[in-house]
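Technical note accompanying the year-one report. For the benefit of new consortium partners, we illustrate the data format agreed upon in the data management plan: each record pairs a sequence with a structure-token string. No post-processing was applied to the example shown here.
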Amino acid sequence: ILPGMEPCVFGEKGGTLVVTARFTGKASDLKRMQFMLNKERSWLLGLTGGRWNFSLSQDGRWPYALMGGDAPAIDEWFQVAAVARRVLRETDGRVGFDMELYINGEKRLSKYVPCNVPHPATDTPVTIGVGNEKANFCGEVANVAFYDHPLNPQEIADALKKEPRVNVRKPGFVDIAPELDSLLAGLKPASPLASFAVAGLRSAAVTGF
């Protein structure tokens, strides 16, 4: 149980849940339901069948779910941000939430759900890793933060920069093997042309180009 988080709900102002965690155990565990964080009769964040599941409750039911995307690799730290932006548009009658899920600062999922009056439970505790015996979370949670308003993409990116556990690579880039990195760092180019060549080798090791 996370003490003091009972009031943390996605209400009239929406909200943002930011979690740094990693899954452990067997790769097959990623295919089952896992409740990473759960607030009874309010919201839950975890996995269902290997896909992300961010759900909002209404009067004890669970009619609003944002599901999809692939689970992170086992033992890989990640930061997930679950956002609910309140939508009140009289022009087209849209009243509800824009639900969004960011993984390591990148928006992966989004969905609009209609909801006239949010009614989440404000008296239930937030629990880590507790569902039924088949849905318990297998992993570690390092940080949890809840904001009573929706963060914008830049604020989510800024939160990620403050998380030293998460190694974010640009698409198509890879980590250099420590041995190669040490070898390149130890080279002492004798000319500007040689320095350019060494920089090119390092870039090729990271990007493949």
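Partners are asked to follow this layout when depositing records. The chain has a mean pLDDT of 88.
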